[in-house]
Design a protein that fits this description.
Blueprint: H1 25-30, E1 38-42, H2 53-63, E2 68-72, H3 81-84, E3 92-96, H4 102-106, H5 132-143, E4 149-151, H6 153-157, E5 163-165, E6 170-172, H7 175-179, E7 183-185, H8 190-203, H9 209-218, E8 224-228, E9 242-243, H10 247-252, H11 254-268, E10 276-280, E11 283-287, H12 296-303, H13 321-326, E12 329-331, E13 333-334, H14 345-349, E14 354-355, H15 358-369, E15 377-378, E16 380-382, H16 396-401, H17 421-431, E17 438-439, H18 447-451, H19 457-473, E18 478-484, H20 488-494, H21 499-516, E19 521-528, H22 535-547, E20 555-557, H23 565-572, H24 588-595, H25 603-615, H26 619-626
Helix pairs in contact: 2-8, 11-23, 25-26
């Protein structure tokens, strides 16, 4: 009998190779299979864990009775033997390019290669191509010209219609055009892939591309995209359809692209969306409405599938960075109603929250405690945002009519229930489980929800209780939050709350630290070069964060990614909702000029920053940054909490000679 990891040394779990979905012919034989129904190609290493998309899709299809195989990170060079490895599937090939857009995963905002690929063994950069969705599909069509290819995952989801690609600095059509795939599933895939599998299984025979296309025309599938001729569109073009400017019109006029995006975003965030059509050449991209959010029982079912929670044995002895980050974490919910302008979560997951049951969460935590190298510490009990669990509209009928991209910007919707009681109960229940020493919150916390006055004292008190519990019991020394900027004008464009709320939260954080005699840090995230942000805004950010006693570490340069309002503003120069001009730093020189203000405290940056401030005719900021004469009456100036260790004190001692 396996002994508890907190009482004695654990034994290795008895995992069999057949516990994973097969990746080779040998593994198929172990299951007694000579043919597969569906073969999934993944741009990521195969980790059988509910945080990895290809594992979820594979397990969902398996639960429907299908024989599923996975080919992780196939070699796309040479003779394509990896693409032939499992043969021809009976129904279709599925492409899951990875948990991140391949270009974001590979390149920085400066278009430089990242230090490692987080989803590849040992962080290797050579395990996937750029745009694996396109590369894999074209190879499969070359080898198996009659087999349907279905796209899914974040890369395809965010590129389902005309989109700006930052790395090629070009407007590109739907990825269906460049790949030649037969169908695209966007968003979270459990519902649409299940519906598709059931439809194809009902046919009871091998599916080829012609039969597949005829079925899709006869039985249109929700949450999918197809390339069709006008005559093929099921039901024809109806008055209820949203017909976007064509790809060619967007190429010719950036205003058309900006106008399109508002419709795309609104339909991604509605309970009852409309079909979207966009002409590209002689065909039309037809995007059907998404499914409604998963119910609690549906989400529980997806998380309760028989994952091993481990990388495939082929990676034994290798490090997969993303897995190391999440293997002792638990995802509590789906969706995010923040609607941040630079974020793709709502475009992929939607703004409506689907939450797991407490019982499902506790089952997963118990499974983690049985892992041989678990030491009692959960790295995260979170989600897209840490504290949106179980939150939804008080009157769902109002939500069904709503098309706001954010439930909390420019202010918190009065219909939104922001009660943190259920989440607080999850934390406390998890911490009572045998084997749990401490559970941390690693996901980003929306402090505007914590500070929001709901008008109901019971809810306000619950939120105060949650805030104290979070700070006292669930912070691993550093609590990360994301104010993103200090300028209210820029923050409004970001769809983020005023920086005044960060001041309020910092005072609360410091007070609780003093009362509890804790020595914890508040770590803010900031972005430079976001649309609407100027060098003057960044200079003022530097001064304000200096006055708050921060030397910034968690910073990033804005990266335009497909299907965000910020990217459309960056590319078109127009805000998609107002069509008013928006300034953006475009060149690497302009972006570097903004980014340097994060690091005013580094001696190597000082002279360049001083020259830049003089050019901007802001000598007042020079005095505030590089002298001790900042006004003590400044509203931004705050004393650090007792026991609070400012970041600038965290320096290594020089080595002894």
């Amino acid at each position: 009998m396996k002994q508890h990891p907190t009482t004695s040394a654990p034994t290795e779990p008895r995992q069999r190779l057949s516990d994973w979905l097969p990746t080779t012919r040998k593994e198929m034989e172990l299951r007694g299979w000579d043919e597969l129904d569906v073969i999934l190609f993944s741009g990521d290493a195969y980790v059988d864990h509910p945080s990895f998309g290809v594992a979820v899709v594979g397990r969902v299809l398996e639960s429907e009775g299908l024989r599923v195989g996975i080919v992780p990170q196939p070699d796309w060079h040479g003779d394509f033997r990896d693409f032939r490895r499992l043969g021809r599937p009976r129904l279709f090939f599925g492409i899951s390019p990875g948990c991140m857009d391949s270009m974001v995963n590979k390149y920085t905002a400066a278009r430089r290669l990242r230090s490692e690929d987080a989803y590849s063994p040992d962080g290797r950069h050579d395990m996937r191509p750029e745009f694996p969705t396109i590369v894999y599909t074209q190879i499969l069509h070359q080898l198996y010209p009659d087999v349907p290819v279905v796209l899914g995952g974040i890369e395809a989801s965010l590129r389902r219609l005309t989109h700006y690609d930052y790395w090629s600095d070009a407007l590109r059509p739907s990825i269906l055009v460049d790949s030649g795939a037969d169908m695209l599933i966007y968003g979270m895939g459990e519902k649409p892939i299940t519906a598709l599998a059931r439809l194809l299984m009902d046919e009871g025979c091998e599916i080829d591309r012609r039969r597949f296309r005829n079925l899709m025309l006869r039985y249109p599938q929700q949450q999918t995209a197809l390339l069709l001729t006008e005559k093929e569109i099921p039901g024809g073009i109806s008055p209820d359809d949203i017909v976007l400017h064509s790809h060619e019109q967007c190429m010719a006029d950036k205003r058309c692209q900006a106008e399109n995006f508002r419709h795309i975003e609104e339909e991604s965030n509605k309970y009852e969306a409309q079909r979207i059509l966009q002409r590209v050449g002689e065909r039309i991209a037809v995007v059907t409405p998404p499914y409604q959010p998963m119910s609690q029982s549906e989400l529980d079912r997806a998380f309760d599938l028989p994952y091993t929670r481990l990388p495939h044995p082929k990676y034994r002895g290798k490090r997969i960075p993303a897995y190391e980050m999440i293997k002792f974490s638990v995802n509590l919910h789906r969706g995010c109603f923040g609607g941040c302008a630079f974020c793709t979560i709502s475009a992929h997951q939607g703004k409506f929250i689907s939450s797991r049951s407490k019982e499902s969460v506790l089952r997963e935590v118990r499974a983690i405690t049985e892992m041989p190298d678990f030491k009692g510490y959960l790295s995260d009990l979170g989600g897209p945002s840490a504290n949106m669990y179980a939150m939804q509209g008080k009157n769902l009928a109002i939500c069904h009519r709503c098309k706001r991209p954010s439930c909390i910007h420019p202010s918190v919707c009065p219909n939104l229930n922001t009660d943190h009681s259920a989440l607080l109960d999850i934390y406390r229940s998890v911490d009572k489980l045998p084997g749990i020493k401490k559970s941390f919150i690693g996901s980003g916390v929306r402090y505007d929800l914590l500070l929001h006055d709901t008008g109901e004292e019971r809810v306000n008190q619950a939120n105060r209780d949650y805030t104290r519990e979070l700070i006292v019991r669930h912070v691993s020394g550093r609590l990360k939050v994301a104010p993103e900027h200090t300028s209210d004008r820029v923050l409004f464009l970001m769809r983020k709350p005023s920086f005044r709320l960060f001041h309020d939260f910092k005072r609360l954080f410091d007070r609780i630290n003093r009362e509890e005699q804790l020595n914890q840090q508040l770590i803010p995230y900031f972005i430079s070069s976001h649309p609407g942000c100027t060098e003057a805004d960044m200079a003022e950010l530097a001064v304000e964060t200096k006055q708050l006693n921060f030397q910034l570490e968690q910073v990033q340069d804005f990266t335009p990614t497909p299907m965000t309002v910020a990217t459309e503003a960056w590319y078109t120069g127009l805000h998609p909702y107002t069509l008013e001009p928006v300034f953006s730093a475009k060149s690497q020189q302009e972006k570097a000029a903004q980014r340097q203000f994060f690091f005013w405290y580094k001696p190597a940056e000082r002279q360049q920053i001083i020259r830049e401030l003089r050019r901007m005719q802001r000598p007042d900021l020079i005095d505030q940054l590089f002298s001790n004469g900042a006004s003590a009456s400044s509203p931004a100036r705050q004393q650090p909490a007792a026991g609070f260790k400012p970041q600038q004190q965290k320096r290594r001692k020089p080595p002894k000679k």
